[in-house]
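Collaborator request, handled under Task 6.
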Amino acid sequence: MKKTVGSSCVNAVSEYFNATIWRDGYEWNIGFKKGILSQELKKGRKSKKTGTRIEYRLDPEIYPDPINIKDLEKKLKQLSYLNEGLTIKYNLGEGWINLKSSTLLDYLKDITPKETIGKSLEFKGKKDNTSVHVVLNYCDGLYSNTILTFVNNINTLNGGEHLNGFKAGIVQALKGLNIKDLTQDDAIEGLVAIVNIKTIEPKFEGQNKLYLQMPEIRDQVKELISESFGEELKKKKTFAKQLTSKINLSIKARLDAKKARENARKQKKALKSTVVEKLSDCHSDDPEKCELFIVEGDSAGGSSKQARDPEYQAVLPIFGKVMNTEKNGGTVTSDKLLDLVNALGCGIDKSFNIDDLKYNKIVVMSDADDDGAHIICLWATFFYNHYRELIENGYIYAAAPPLFRLVKGNNHKYIYTKEELAKYEEKDQWHVQYIKGLGEMNPDQLWESTLDPKKRHLYKITIEDAEKCAKMVSDIMGKDSEARKNLVLNNFGVD
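Structure tokens returned to the collaborator:
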């Protein structure tokens, strides 16, 4: 996963770091060497300019490898898109290059893969200290979607409340077209969009800043999109008609596929019924609503079975860590893994058929510690090796249970990381309870913090994530002992 850091972190890993700021009618200068102040903030000559110039050089003792120039140029180009009116000038050793100011609509044009239905749309709004800038279009013949989200130039790869608000606003606007059986997936099929947020003191989930946690921004984005996009649909009758036709085709395809799956499932069930002893299945027969939670051991399994919503949530306890298939050529022979294969209902490897999948979400649920992270890595590798199509289609998730429970009187709240607890300003006013594992939580707590769709934190495992996990597992647990040795030495600080 990509990480985003601020200027303080860049300063700490730089050989030198100098800042020049123009404000309040003067030029100001401050400098650092290897993270230590070398020049106090100094007031310089008078100036009418405004702006900031940062000059730094990464410390070669920390970063001995050269910078990926292509990645740097891509990032600079992205910044020019996200900050209209910004001019970027850079020199990578072959002379100075002026990057002309671009617009968010230019960015949208660059990432749009097919012909659009009508012209691209642009919406802007500002409330209090938050500005929202959205551009979007629909592509004919595109059956996926691309929605990029940014907060203060940070690419929130896992989305967040601004993305949730955007999707909700799209659905709300489309309801004005009276489209029957409309779902959110239907509404965003073929959609290419960029949601760009600028706000003061944004709140993220975790230090990687991959997910925005601000419900007030969700409401702001939803209101902007539902009203503005709704007005566009009313004004542009031809566009609305074309979009309605595209969405109706998507709905028909979805309903036809659902009916075909149900018929095939009924036929298979009549021919053969595979009983998975450990599986506590859900009551619903609708795969689009059903979820399977994979948990480790009877303790967590017992709590999960009591905590779940049995109508649409299934639980499968599997003892111990998932086997390492690297050591037997990738063959699945373990009974516990065969239980999972039978529970999924879609076969495996050569017998795999995604249309037979019984669940819309397969969620790995492990403890919120290093061992739990290891388990998630192993499962991601397993699915990458045997069920790559499930990852590609967004079926595989990891649950994020809380690490701490804060209690004050009859009130309580959950904290999900040590970093979040350290930054929590009111923590001294609460009794802090460390949660050792899923098995230590009573069913009510487990439901409220980890299973409830309205409150839980789920992270979709991407192909990129799974590839990294697979590479690590292969190096550590594969047959190449030298690769294992090098990985440990280079990444875990072992002498």
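The cover message to the collaborator said: "The first strand starts at residue 14 and ends at 23. The radius of gyration is 26 Å. Please let us know whether this matches your experimental observations."
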